């Protein structure tokens, strides 16, 4: 089976968040199941730099009035297609924003051109290649399905995965005339969304199947609280919506072989984790006492509950725990955590930015990882935490609720807990959850059981890859029946 995967980022080539990790690891998980994946990316400078040996395979004209070049490359065994257009994609700043963190004003055009080019690939622009499935990720790729729907060529079935429904690609109505779509596409059944153009909304309308990245999130986005204005459409299309929890690449995230760790370990050699703990403390200037050492590895934003953590810092420290923070985001939150580090030297430390190696070391050395998200479609850091013996303390939402078994009295007594849930979410309940985790940490036998339960959890793509395969097969079979083949 041939799958054309479409995304705006992909690890290890270009990454701003968890989307890249998923797009980068799913092809490898699907390959043993007989699925051949090609992933299409925009030709950002980082992509071209990583794909130095990329070869030009086609030139596409009249892509919304533009000419784009198609390149192909192999990176770490991944088959990559690149849509190259220098003025649209080869910019010095990030994939979506300028050096000031402001969205590019022409993002609508950048990802419309990208999507139109991908639709042309899906319908035969590369001689000898026609995918069986087109799998699009998030709003930046959602318009592929719109161009396929309104195109003149029979199209393969399309899947749209929502990684975070809060990011929708909404633009002014004026851009519609520049999208190279028929007038009929301007409707509630097309791209129109609250009087403007909605890229994600259009993809949700056109997709043959919609997936989210956890079963709980698939239910949550039907509500006003989590649907972000799209809950009505999600309800209408409920029969096409399913939740398939993400996995992690357990070759990259493997505590037994991870080169970023000071000492490798597994569930039988947990004593080796102490060397990683010491390395984290040395790197960040934290005291090496016996209290609970908690990692925070995240974007410093409201969604991630970081304002509540900033409010809870003093209570967390008073409980005897220490905080090691790695992340960036809202300037006010960055300043708040810097202030907390100044108030609590040796007990609170923050490194602004993102460092992949440090993230691995923190997972391998900290006792717990705090993820108090207000909403979390899936989350990957808790999966890494489970795999590395770093006990998750999480908000009771989305994929966090699906993947972490709460250490309540019954679960602890039954010996099945893998972490702790925070519910309802507030600064006070964060402190309470940390205190509960701290009490468990003081009981060596109880903590060892929590750690081993987490490390025994299957966080790989194995089960989820099988679910994707079943979904692909059902769509291909339905498409064949519809076309009479």
Indicate the structural class: alpha/beta
Mean pLDDT reading:
96
Q: Just give the CATH class of the largest domain.
A: Alpha Beta
CATH architecture assignment name of the largest domain: 3-Layer(aba) Sandwich
Question: Helix proportion of residues, in percent?
Answer: 25-40%
Give the overall shape.
globular
Superfamily (CATH H level) name of the largest domain:
Glycogen Phosphorylase B
How is the biggest beta sheet arranged?
Answer: 9 strands, mixed
Low-confidence segments, given as residue ranges, are 481-485
Number of helices: 19
Radius of gyration: 23 Å
How many domains make up the 3D coordinates? 2
End-to-end C-alpha gap: 16 Å
The side-by-side strand order for the widest beta sheet comes to 3-4-5-2-1-6-7-11-12
Report the portion of residues in β strands. 15-25%
β-strand number: 18
CATH topology of the largest domain: Rossmann fold
Provide a concise account of the structure shown:
With 485 residues, this protein is of the alpha/beta class. It is built from 19 helices and 18 strands.
Please tell me about this protein's structure.
The chain has helices spanning 18-30, 45-50, 86-89, 107-122, 138-149, 199-206, 215-220, 224-227, 231-236, 273-284, 306-318, 331-343, 356-365, 381-387, 398-403, 409-414, 427-442, 444-456, 462-483, and strands at 2-6, 36-42, 55-63, 66-75, 78-84, 133-137, 158-162, 170-171, 192-193, 196-198, 209-212, 241-243, 293-297, 322-327, 348-352, 368-371, 391-395, 420-422. It has 485 residues and is of the alpha/beta class. A 9-stranded mixed β-sheet has the order 3-4-5-2-1-6-7-11-12, sandwiched between helices. Helix 10 crosses helix 13 and helix 11 (306-318) runs parallel beside helix 12. The chain is globular and about 65 Å long. The protein starts with a strand and ends with a helix.
